[in-house]
């Protein structure tokens, strides 16, 4: 089954082609980072308008890369939520229009399910069941995954997510947008000079809280007589140590609690080198396997939507297709069901 995937939930337009027998055939991505950088964050209306400009040219690009035409498509998948309402409407309306015109089935995909399944695109995909750490945008969650659509929430953030904490810390340090890569780059050059808290590190549950850490960074910054380059690097180092220590500790606790030996890490923060190093070291000591998507699939992309959609379309019973559509700007991952 040849499936076209369209991702447009926030500030990246991603399109990909996935074949259930041959795997990923082609993918293309346009990032809006440069456009939003001037505003210090994503402007929803600008994001929506840019998705309109990019979606169809990217679709033509991936079809050409794979030497396919629209008539070769056997299904279309699109991000139905969660995300920015206007941005979701662009991808959803284009996908459903194409599906209706081509008379092929379509399926709305949960954005976080796409991230969660992204490691399945690699040469050695993880087997079910496993624990997943989802650290994407405003989400920091630990899930038990027993199969596609079989998700149990183990832990969630009570306030800010890890990615949001990175972005807000970057702003406090006077760094650019997006904040995560900027903080990580400087952290690699820093040294242990300060001490920041590890919120909820020893809480009895698997939940996270990063709002207090952001406030601690603010206090630390305000207490510095001079915020020079070396001081910024050292604060970034300590901040990254705090976040990664918390994430690693909670992952290990979740694995122990579920008695599972496989961990999957997905989402933008999953690209953090320090997090990967600490997880790999801890996993090696405990006989645990850790799977990550390739770096280009940690951020939003069409490949993960094409794959997740293909898995659902392939398992669905054929029936009359309804091309009306709706979006889910807020959508709990645990509401999903296994494909039938």
UniProtKB/TrEMBL annotation:
Catalytic reaction list: L-threonylcarbamoyladenylate + adenosine(37) in tRNA = N(6)-L-threonylcarbamoyladenosine(37) in tRNA + AMP + H(+)
Keyword Transcription: no
Residues reported in the UniProt entry to bind Fe cation: 111, 115, 300
Keyword terms: Acyltransferase, Cytoplasm, Iron, Metal-binding, Transferase, tRNA processing
Named cofactor requirement(s): Fe(2+)
CDD domains: ASKHA_NBD_TsaD_bac
Cofactor comment: Binds 1 Fe(2+) ion per subunit.
Enzyme Commission number(s) from the entry: 2.3.1.234
Free-text function comment from the UniProt entry: Required for the formation of a threonylcarbamoyl group on adenosine at position 37 (t(6)A37) in tRNAs that read codons beginning with adenine. Is involved in the transfer of the threonylcarbamoyl moiety of threonylcarbamoyl-AMP (TC-AMP) to the N6 group of A37, together with TsaE and TsaB. TsaD likely plays a direct catalytic role in this reaction.
Name of the protein: tRNA N6-adenosine threonylcarbamoyltransferase
Native organism: Methylophilus glucosoxydans
């Amino acid at each position: 089954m040849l499936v076209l995937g369209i991702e447009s939930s926030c500030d990246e337009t991603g399109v990909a082609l996935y074949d259930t027998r041959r795997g990923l055939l082609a993918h293309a991505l346009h990032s809006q980072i440069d456009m939003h950088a001037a505003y210090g964050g994503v402007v929803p209306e600008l994001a929506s308008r840019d998705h309109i400009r990019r979606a169809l040219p990217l679709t033509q690009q991936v079809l050409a890369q794979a030497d396919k035409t629209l008539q070769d498509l056997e299904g279309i998948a699109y991000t139905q939520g969660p995300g920015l309402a206007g941005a979701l409407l662009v991808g959803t309306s284009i996908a459903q229009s194409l599906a209706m015109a081509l008379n092929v089935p379509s399926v709305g995909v949960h954005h976080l399910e796409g991230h969660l399944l992204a490691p399945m695109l690699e040469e050695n995909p993880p087997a079910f069941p496993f624990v997943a750490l989802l650290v994407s945008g405003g989400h920091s969650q630990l899930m038990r995954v027993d199969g596609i659509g079989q998700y149990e929430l183990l832990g969630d953030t009570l306030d800010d997510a890890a990615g949001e904490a990175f972005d807000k810390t970057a702003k406090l340090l006077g760094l650019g947008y997006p904040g995560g890569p900027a903080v990580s780059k400087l952290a690699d050059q820093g040294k242990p000079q300060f001490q920041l808290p590890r919120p909820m590190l020893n809480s009895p549950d698997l939940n996270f809280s990063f709002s207090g850490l952001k406030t601690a960074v603010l206090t630390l910054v305000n207490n510095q007589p001079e915020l020079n380059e070396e001081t910024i690097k050292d604060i970034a180092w300590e901040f990254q140590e705090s976040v990664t220590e918390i994430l690693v500790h909670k992952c290990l606790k979740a694995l122990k609690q579920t008695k599972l030996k496989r961990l999957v890490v997905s989402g933008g923060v999953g690209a953090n080198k320090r997090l990967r190093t600490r997880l790999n070291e801890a996993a090696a000591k405990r006989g645990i396997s850790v799977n990550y998507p390739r770096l280009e699939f940690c951020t939003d992309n069409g490949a993960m939507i094409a794959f997740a959609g293909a898995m659902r379309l392939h398992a669905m019973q054929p029936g009359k297709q309804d091309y009306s559509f709706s979006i889910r700007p807020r959508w709990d991952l645990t509401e999903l069901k296994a494909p039938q």
